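Recap from last week: sequence in, structure out.
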Amino acid sequence: MKRDIEGLSKTAFDLGVIGGGVNGAATARDAALRGLKVALVEARDFASGTSSRSSKLIHGGLRYLEQLDFKLVHEARRERRLLLKLAPHLAWPVPFLLPIYKGDPYSPLKIRLGLSIYDLLGNLGRGDRHRMLSPQEALRAIPALRREGLRAAALYHDSETDDARLTFEYALDAAEHGAVVANYTEIRALSVSAGPGPEAPQVVAAEAEDRMTGRTYEISARFWVNATGPWVDHVRALLPGFDGSKTIRLTKGTHIILPPVTGDYALFAAILPGERIFVMAPWCGHALMGTTDTDFEGDPASVRPDRADVEYLLNALNRVLEKPVRMDDVLGSFAGLRALATEPGRSPSANTREYRFHEDRWAKNFLSVCGGKLTTARALGEKLVDLVRARLSEKALSGKPTRILPLPGGHTGDFKAFLNHASEEASRAFDIPFPIAERIVRTYGSRWRAVLEPLHRNKLLAEPLPGSPALLAAEADFAIEHEMAMNVEDFLLRRSGLNWLACSALREAAPAVAGIFAKRFSWSAERREAAVAGFAQCASTPGQGKRPGLAS
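Predicted C-alpha cells:
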C-alpha cells in the first residue's frame, strides 16, 4: 500500500471517507469492494486515536444484556463469528472467567440466565458455550483469585484482537481494491454548493493538507462520511451553517498493562460500589486491564491516563485477588476516548454503545458516524454503504462482499494448522528462530512471506532490533515499504503488533528504528532525534514499574 497523496486531486470520487479509525477504514473497504471510487484520508495515522486504545476485544458485550440491548449484542456476536473466518490471525477465542462474590450486584442464577441468552445470540459451537463453576473449580483455573466470599464462577468465551492491525488491514484492503488512501492528510475546509430550489446544499469538495509537506489538495466526491470518532463535531464545524450542536459524548477509558496474573484466562468482574465492570485479558505475554469510563472535555489529542485512573483500576482488581497488585507492578498505561452517540441524562456507562448516522440539514450528502464498537465496524461500514448506494442510485452494486472476503492476512484456512506449518517453513527457509517466525505469522497472517522475503537479499534485515530479541529490522522496513508507516510511532505502536507495550519494552529500539526511517526518508539528524523524542513521550505514563520482556 502506497501513500498516494497526489491521487486525491486527480479523481472524481463517489465517496470521500474522513477518518482512518476502524469505522472509516471498514466503510472505505466495503465501498471499494462494491465498486465505488473511494478516497480515505486520516489526519494522523491509521488507528492512532481510539482504534488503538481499546480493550483489544472482539466481544458481544455481556453487560449490555442488563441494559436489554439485545440488538447490539446479537450483531456483535455475529461479527465475532465472521471475524474468526475473515481475519483468523487477528481474532482468537479467549476463555473468560467471571467470579461471583458475596456483595456483587449479580447472583449465580442471574449470571447463568444472562450467559444462556448470550449463547443463544451467537457462539462458535458446543465448546464455546458457557458453564458454571464451583469455587474450587474457579480457583483451579485462576489460583490468584481471592478465596474468601467466592460463591461461584462462570466460564464463557469471547475473542481478542490486535485493534491497530485490524484497523490497518481494513484500510489496506480498501487500497488493494482501488481506494486512494492517505494518512497524515487533514481536512481543513469543506466547499458546499446550494441545491436547486429548496433542496439542502451539498458538499462538493474538501481542502486537504498533507501534514508531511504542508501542501494542499482538493478532493471532490459525490458523498461524504465523517468517521473521525472524537473529532466528529470538529469536522462538522467545517460545514457552512453549522449550529454548534453536539452529536457525540466523549468518555475516557484508561487501561493498564500488568504481569500475567490470571494466566491464559481473561477475568471479568464487578467494580464496587456501583454497576461497572472490569476486564483483564492475556495480551503479549502480559495482562491488559481496563477500563475507566468518565466524561471528558477538551482536546481529544490531549487525553492521557493519570494516577487516579490507575489506582481506581488496581483497587477494583485487588478486590478479587488474594495477593494485591501494587503500583510498582504496573508496566504501563494508556488512555483513549469513546465517541458515544449522545444520550442526555444517562451515566457514561449506561450510555448506548450502538452506532448512529447523523445527517445535518445543511449538507444532504454528508453523514457523520456517532458511536460504534471495534467489534461492529464491519457491519457499520456495510450499512453505511447500503445507504450511500441508495443515495447515489448505484443500482448495479449489490451483495455483501465484506461478509465473505477475508482481510489481506486472513487467507489462512484453519489458523492453528496454518500457524504451525507456516512458522516451521519461515524458520527453516529464512533461518530465523522459531519463536520469531511464529510471532511474525501471528502478526501478518498469510502475508508473512512478504515480510521475510527481503532477508534473501539483505541478511542485515534479520537482525533483531536493540532491546527486542523478537522484533526484526525487516519488519520496520516492510512497514515503510508496504504499510504506509511514516514515523517511528507508526511502526512500533501500530504495525509491530506490540501496540502500547512498545512504550516500555522498546525504548532501546526507537533509535535503531529511527535510523531505518531516516535512511528511507532522508531525514536530517535533527529530524531523527525528534522522532526518537516523540516516541519517548508515550512512555511517560503513570504507574510505570518493572520493564517487561517481549513475549514471542
